[in-house]
Amino acid sequence: MKYFGGIEAGGTKFVCVVTDSGKEILAETRFPTTTPGETLNRVIDFFRSQNQQMDEPISALGVACFGPIDPQPTSPGFGYITTTPKPGWANTPVVPPLQEAFHVPVAFDTDVNAAAVGEGVWGAAARLDDFLYLTIGTGIGGGGVSNGRPLHGLVHPEMGHIRIPHDWNRDPYAGFCPYHSDCFEGLAAGPALLGRWQQPGDTLPPEHPAWALEAHYIALALQSFICTLSPQKILLGGGVMQQAQLFPMIRAEVTRLLNGYVQSPAIFDHIDEYIVPPGLGGRAGVLGAVALAQQLVASSDAA
Amino acid sequence: MKYFGGIEAGGTKFVCVVTDSGKEILAETRFPTTTPGETLNRVIDFFRSQNQQMDEPISALGVACFGPIDPQPTSPGFGYITTTPKPGWANTPVVPPLQEAFHVPVAFDTDVNAAAVGEGVWGAAARLDDFLYLTIGTGIGGGGVSNGRPLHGLVHPEMGHIRIPHDWNRDPYAGFCPYHSDCFEGLAAGPALLGRWQQPGDTLPPEHPAWALEAHYIALALQSFICTLSPQKILLGGGVMQQAQLFPMIRAEVTRLLNGYVQSPAIFDHIDEYIVPPGLGGRAGVLGAVALAQQLVASSDAA
Fold first, then answer.
1. Contact assessment for residue A39 and residue A14, using Cβ atoms and an 8 Å cutoff
2. Directed axis angle between helix B36-53 and helix B95-102, to 10°?
3. B101: closest CA of chain A, how far (Å)
4. Which among A258, B5, B93, B226 could bridge B61 via Cys, Cβ 3.0 to 4.6 Å?
């Protein structure tokens, strides 16, 4: 039996799991994100303690990390959190202390890329080669899979920061993004709901006009993602998407905005199966980290 | 010596070339696009005649095709132009008559994906795995390469149809896209210049305010593509981009819009090498078709 460790390294909490080859979770812990030193020591303590209890130690670790990060294995900065505004965490090595502690391969990617990979292995995008996982919560992030592999490129995508049309007549709220004011995240993440309506999104009733505007902004962004990536499926997760009434509104608005363009039965006849919630719920990140670890070992074995 | 045939199947003209294994062009012809039957017969006649003059016949063909098309080799509609508004060309088989005439492998992709692949082999994106080729002319189209392979997904990208903010105060022109009015293409392709300023773009002097607005719209779209795809380089081609004054304006506007986000020296220190013209000029499409044919043969040889 091979064991794998998954770490969801979030800005507010860390989740660590040990699994066997499948997604069966054998042990799990979660704790708040404090200083890098203290937090990473808790990660190391957890896996050390697990290793002592199992018939063999973990074969590989995967980290689904808040960012921005350097996920390029060939880069000198590989495995670091880079320029995050989170106090104390800029330029933090995450992979190096894990490699030093356990001497196993460590996979490292953004939280959203990892979640996308996890959804592609066990979740709502199983067996698809081209899809998009988008999380809409305190911020907005996207993980894209193309030809079966996560998008990385120059750094990694930052899908929350695309520009979308801002309907100033309908919505005088200026947006909250410190870099771009009214980019997608600035207009549609959780803090925009609070800023625009002066109350948290989860206290607004389902029939409140906030949700039609929210669905409009999300649909504008989805049109751009559809036209850029041509995904076979779009998974929408995160705190804001806990508002289940948004799904039919977003589907209708995407259909209206595309207006007959991009002719595919997947969009025009089956949009209820095209824009869907994630299959792994809140565990997409940490299970995605496990999937990254498994893929890393599989690709080393194949090489 | 292996010979390859490349076909750039455009809405107004076709270009066919024969090359040896490199990009050396041994023969070339171009003719206007008329009916499907007549046009494809001219293609077949050209390669038949070339085959008779060479020491061996072409090993494979590649087609860089106007669209929308079906580029999925596993699909029953593979090799067809699908729903184009071009009269007479909807649901036209392109690959089947070529396979029947020559009994060789035929690669088939969008004109922009082919151009991107060609630029990745011989042009301005040589040795890059993640980049974007965008053509801005009568329409706008994008070919994206991710992890070394062109983006396909559900259908294929339609990057001209992303939504961008429309500055109504500065620009009351409504946009010309018949599907979305003021999507990127509707605001920034050649016909938008004509519609907005009542004269063709190539008659507007370089200091005309048209170009600052044009650069603004292109930069808004590039911010979305950068945040979605994280390309290592962006190539801008097509008729509108013959206006060389646009390049510095677009680079400055992208820098202004990103506003310090997406921290990469490639963007912040070297944007002159990040947003560039294509390397193959007007031959990107047909040479891309050749590259597709070569890759198809190479992947069959490897399998």
1. yes
2. 30
3. 30
4. B5
Q: What is the CA angle A69-A71-A74, rounded to 5? A: 130
Which letter, b or e, does each residue of A11-46 get, where b requires 16 or more Cβ atoms within 10 Å of its Cβ?
beebbbbbbeeebeeebebeeebeebeebbebbeeb
Q: Three-state SS for B158?
A: coil
The strand ranges marked E within chain A are: 4-9, 13-19, 25-32, 60-65, 80-81, 92-93, 106-110, 131-136, 140-146, 149-150, 234-237, 275-276
Interchain pair B154, A231: CB under 8 A: yes
Of A152, A154, A224, the CB nearest to B162: A224
Quote the ipTM score. Answer: 0.94
Pick B154's closest partner by Cβ from A83, A162, A232. Answer: A232
CA-to-CA distance for A130 and A230, rounded, in angstroms?
A: 8
What's the CA gap between B183 and B171, in Å, rounded? 14
Place of tokens 């989170």: A86
- Binary contact (B161, A227; C-beta < 8 A): yes
Which 3 state secondary structure label does DSSP give B293?
helix
Which residues touch A88 (CB under 8 Å, ≥6 apart)?
A: A35, A36
Tens digit of each residue's pLDDT, chain B (303 residues): 789 999 999 999 999 999 997 668 999 999 999 999 999 999 999 999 999 999 999 999 999 999 889 999 989 999 999 988 889 999 999 999 999 999 999 999 999 999 999 999 999 999 999 999 999 999 999 999 999 999 999 988 999 999 999 999 999 999 999 999 999 999 999 999 999 999 999 999 999 999 999 999 999 999 999 999 999 999 999 999 999 999 999 999 999 999 988 778 888 889 999 999 999 988 899 999 999 999 999 888 776
d(CA B297, CA B6): 13
- pLDDT tens readout for residues B192-236: 999 999 999 999 999 999 999 999 999 999 999 999 999 999 999
pTM for the predicted model, two decimal places: 0.94
What's the token pair of residue A63?
């980290």
Residues of B in contact with A225 (CB under 8 A): 228
Task: Count CA atoms within 13 Å of residue B159 on its CB side.
Answer: 29
Give the whole-angstrom CA distance, residue B37 versus residue B87. Answer: 13
